[in-house]
Design brief:
By secondary structure, the protein is an alpha+beta fold. 63% of the residues lie in helices and 14% in strands.
């Protein structure tokens, strides 16, 4: 039985430790009864909230406070000292909680693209005195491309027309 448990632990431990390395968790401060960890991947409001709410459920943790600004997690324990196994289990729980929360967070790349699109959209509106925005120019591009390519590729043109129609209808719904 102990061989099976040991084999299972040897298979699971590398996965957990790779997540720990992937999140680049650093121990910023450790003293009896208190631990402060930091990871750049925790600089997200959803992740910080999940860490604060979930980690405090551990029977070892008296309180936990996560900061989305600094990406840090401060833990206060119910006892001044915990065993290495308890610390390992807690770190595994923290890493898993952060990994799960990251799945619910918006991707940084998407946030960046949305911000860039917003800036471009504002610039177009300013330059045209509110006559056009990015979506209207994109619809015109799709319609022009569809009309131009219709004789050679009618199926492709139809998909461009439908895409333009969908954008217009989505804007209409608001």
């Amino acid at each position: 039985m102990s061989t099976i448990i040991g084999l299972g632990a040897s298979l699971v431990a590398p996965k957990i430790m790779s997540q720990f390395r992937d999140q680049k968790v650093k121990v910023l401060h450790a003293m009896p009864g208190r631990l402060r960890l930091q990871s750049d991947s925790w600089k997200n409001e959803i992740v910080a909230k999940a860490l604060s709410n979930q980690i405090v459920k551990s029977p070892l943790v008296l309180s936990s406070q996560a900061s989305a600004i600094t990406g840090s997690l401060t833990l206060h324990f119910v006892v001044p000292h915990i065993s290495q196994q308890e610390l390992d289990d807690l770190l595994q729980f923290i890493v898993q909680t952060a990994s799960d929360a990251l799945l619910n967070a918006d991707a940084a790349l998407m946030r960046g693209m949305q911000k860039t699109l917003g800036i471009v959209d504002t610039g177009i509106k300013r330059q045209t005195n509110g006559f056009a925005d990015f979506d209207s120019l994109f619809v015109l591009f799709l319609l022009g491309k569809g009309i131009h390519a219709f004789s050679n590729t009618p199926a492709f043109s139809a998909s461009l027309f439908y895409w333009a129609y969908s954008i217009i209808k989505q804007k209409e719904r608001g």
